[in-house]
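Protocol step 6 of 9: fold each sequence in the batch and record its structure tokens directly after the sequence line. For illustration, a two-sequence batch is reproduced in full.

Sequence one:
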Amino acid sequence: MNRSDRIRDAFRSVATTVINASWERIRLAGAINAEHPLARRYGSMGRGSYVAFPQGDCYNAHAIHIGEDCFIGAGSTLAVGMPTETYPADTPPVIEIGDRTTVGKDCWFVARHSIVLEADVTVAPNVYFTDHNHTYADPWLPVGKQVLQGFSVRVGAGTWIGTNVVVLPGTSIGRNCAIAAGAVVRGEIPDHSVVVGVPGRVVRRWIDGEGWVPPLTNEVVVVEGWPVGVRPTDE
């Protein structure tokens, strides 16, 4: 290696270090937590919650309520209505994210009525939630200009939603469900269900007195020190 190559490599190494260190500082400085002045734009943000930088689009944030100890990944959009719409200051919660819920990066919440994620929900990256759709009954009017129909969406406590899932209007997912990557979900999903496919279908459920139906194919290994679930008193 000649002298010019060594100088070039040394410069590249220093530049890479400086750029990465600077980006890390920007990322930390740009994040929003409950103590940050920008947290006041939300209807509420609980203690210990964190919206990573860079944030995605956020419309009518006063109708968005985030619980305690939540994480919202970088690039995730929280949209109540359209950018051109202004919701009244006393609008009830439209997007609600429960305590200890984690939302991966680049997710979309597109809401006009109600999208609720209960406590301890885990959402992988690139998941899309919407509580409304355009109708298409008029064959001569562009679909994007036709009437919007809306139906509330709810995701039960403890549910895990895999990457690239689409959750459609009117969906109600029960407690402690597993929604496989790429599924398109609509309708009522019972508690303790495993959902796969397009359209999403239940392929396994926990049923009291029977256990998992059909049975699990792999035995669950209990790891020392790992938490063990306890049946809620309200079940």
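Sequence two, same batch, same settings:
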Amino acid sequence: MTNIRISLSHLPITDKHIVLSELIGLSLANSFIDLKGQIISSFENPQAARRLILLLDFMREPHSLSSYIPNRFGGISGHRYEITFSNRIVYSILTNHEYIYEISILPVGFLRSLFLARGNLYISTRGGYRLTFASRYKFALDYASDYLSEYRFSFALQKRPNKDIWFLHITKFDEIVSLLNLFGVHAAVEKLLEIHGAREVKKNITRITNIELANLKRVSYTSGRQSQKLSRL
């Protein structure tokens, strides 16, 4: 997962339109407006914070960065990075969620930055896969789901009980690969395909072994029955 985040944070920044789309995606994962009317975006991974700073530098927007280690439930958690900045469009979206439908946003830039901000890729020890988007705002994931529906991805939307956070899950392996390719992180896709291929080989070997063991048991059982019949003659 770290390799995917690093790849996303180092993608070239050249187009103003996609920069704005990425800025919105990063901001809608976990941002709020303070009493001064400034936007504070909070991240738990440094790659997302780095990307937001690069975008703001490209747009020549003033900003400040603070980093601290929060104390959670009596224990120390990882670093949290908070970036304070001002942007008229992001401010308008956070104060009026419907405004997001009034502006032009590039789907790929929005989705990959939303994923970078708070998403994850889970690889189960049992062989399953799950790519997850996360946001404190349901409207952000509703907006993302509109794009995913256009690309014909299947997904599930879920709210964590007693928590102010929403999740959007994609579990089909082929769709996860397609989405990561769409994001432009091709090296990460190759690595994921290697993991999947190795798992499939192991799964096939296990299946063949189980079939052979079952056949041996049947042969042994049949031989035993024949021996019993011969002993009665």
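Proceed to step 7 once all outputs are recorded. Observation for sequence two: The longest strand covers residues 129-135.
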